[in-house]
Design brief:
- By secondary structure, the protein is an alpha/beta fold.
- The chain folds into two domains: about 75-90 and about 365-470, Aspartate Aminotransferase, domain 1 (Alpha-Beta Complex); about 95-360, Aspartate Aminotransferase, domain 2, CATH 3.40.640.10.
- About 35% of the residues lie in helices and about 15% in strands.
- A seven-stranded mixed beta sheet has the order 2-8-7-6-5-3-4, with helices on both faces.
- Strand 9 (about 310-315) and strand 10 form a beta hairpin.
- Helix 4 (about 120-135) packs parallel to helix 10 (about 350-385).
């Protein structure tokens, strides 16, 4: 490094070496081993300084080389996308962005002073109310970083509520959620990677109740069972049956959800016996951000309020009887309780949570039901058509909502995805894509998402492409 270059990383070589020893890694490079080698640069970045105009021109040229995946049709060269597996994009009305920019919401970022933060506080309060109604539970927090961290926080909360240590995770829980839970538990004092067990899905794609019962019977120290509904493969779980089995062993049922639109046609998890429900609301808020911020949804039964992570906004009146909003519970947070805090989540995704709230407000109950019905009908049509293709079959017999999993002809879902991407069609997510399930178990599984954005012509184009790709 030349003397004219500035170093922005404050850690010395000794600092880095000590940190690597603590986490048991041989080098900084080993931290990126999970990223495919073809995507990693092995040479130093050669970045020349540019003035603002030149930089904008250069970035525009780079962007022009990208294949856009915006929209559900080939408008203006946009790709046809059936991506989901964690964040399923929906049509977001332009009114959401317009209302998001209104000055009423431009109040203090951190609402510790209610007298100058009423816009932020009201937005959070309305968000909490909608999450409670959506999930069928009594209390919701002000949002979390994303669905995965919300799931991990739910497990920690279950441990506080029950006083028990271990957790059971459904095999059809999103792999990245399971990995995040594992990381949280291993990082706890006296914690380890053995603090949760996994229960595989049955032939119908649902949690096998007999296997779950047997796993629960092995220990009296199980705090919760974490399932996803609809699950990673798109299958709708039997939550009532799961709740009965879990509660009979004195554990809590934690339900994760990555597709809140599903509750336009499905009964809420709370009504079916769930104790804690978490989710990801990004698909109804903003377009997918490829690793950018999400918005974690978190709700529980009211009796667990004191163990809820994050912050909670409440409605009150001032001395003149005027309605106002305040931080009702914030003592759980690090800025006050420090090591006694119930969560390491000290803030919330306010802007994206507001977008989520505005979109649901515009939809209303009737609009959410109509959107859900469109998702279900179009997905069922796609399932039926793909199942007719020689060499393709539905992977699971259980009911689905707007995502479903197929076994591809040739047995290599990653290859199928790559070949269709060359045609400008993102056919879905291979179950063994980077960051998902390990290879060798389900290489032939392709998860396809169909929403209200897709037309019959879009679906027929996907079916034709799948039929061609390995013919």
């Amino acid at each position: 490094m030349s003397k004219n270059q500035q170093r922005y990383i404050p850690h010395t070589d000794d600092d880095i070496a000590r940190m690597l020893r603590v986490i048991g890694k041989p080098s900084v490079e080993s931290l990126f081993a999970h990223i495919p080698a073809r995507l990693r640069s092995t040479r130093p970045l050669d970045i020349a300084p540019l003035d603002e105009g030149s930089l904008l021109k250069h970035l525009g040229e780079i962007g022009a080389r990208s294949k856009p995946a915006i929209g559900a049709t080939f408008r203006d060269g946009a790709a046809l996308s059936f991506l989901g597996a964690g964040v399923t994009p929906h049509t977001i009305p332009s009114a959401v962005d317009m209302l998001l920019q209104r000055s009423e919401w431009y109040t203090s970022y951190t609402p510790y002073q209610p007298e100058i933060s009423q816009g932020t506080l009201q937005a959070i309060f309305e968000f909490q109310t909608m999450v409670c109604e959506l999930f069928g539970l009594g209390v919701a927090n002000a949002s979390m970083y994303d669905g995965a961290s919300a799931a991990a926080e739910a497990v920690l909360m279950a441990r506080r509520v029950t006083g028990k240590k271990h957790a059971i995770v459904a095999g059809a829980l999103h792999p990245q959620y399971a990995q995040t839970i594992d990381s949280y538990l291993a990082g706890e004092e006296h914690g380890s990677h053995e603090d949760f067990a996994e229960v595989r899905a049955g032939d119908d794609g649902r949690v096998a109740l007999k296997v779950l019962e047997a796993t629960l019977a092995k220990s009296d120290d199980i705090s919760c069972v974490v399932v996803q509904n609809p699950n990673f493969f798109g299958v709708v779980e039997d939550l009532k049956a799961l709740a009965d089995v879990v509660h009979a062993r004195g554990a809590l049922l934690v339900v994760a959800n990555t597709e809140p639109v599903a509750f336009g046609v499905l009964q809420s998890p709370g009504a079916l016996g769930a104790d804690i429900v978490v989710g990801e609301g990004l698909g109804l808020s903003i377009p997918p951000t490829m690793g950018g911020p999400g918005v974690g949804l978190f709700a529980s039964k009211a009796e667990f309020t004191r163990n809820l992570p994050g912050r909670l906004v409440g409605e009150t009146v001032d001395r003149d009887g005027r309605r106002g909003y305040v931080l009702t519970l914030a003592t759980r947070e690090q800025h006050i309780r420090r090591e006694k805090a119930t969560s390491n989540i000290c803030t919330n995704q306010g802007l994206i949570a507001l977008a989520f709230t505005i979109h649901l407000s515009l939809l209303g109950k009737r609009g959410l039901v109509e959107m859900a019905q469109l998702n279900l009908a179009k997905s069922e049509y796609a399932k039926a058509q793909i199942a007719k293709i020689a060499g393709f079959s539905l992977a699971f017999s259980g009911p689905t909502f707007n995502e479903f999993t197929v076994r591809v002809r040739g047995g290599d879902a990653n290859l199928t995805v790559e070949k269709l991407a060359d045609q400008g069609i993102y056919a879905g997510v291979a179950a063994t894509a980077p960051g998902m399930l390990p290879k060798g178990q389900c290489d032939d599984l392709l998860i396809i998402a169909v929403t209200e954005r897709h037309t019959k012509a879009d679906i027929d184009k996907l079916v034709s492409a799948l039929d061609w790709v390995q013919a």
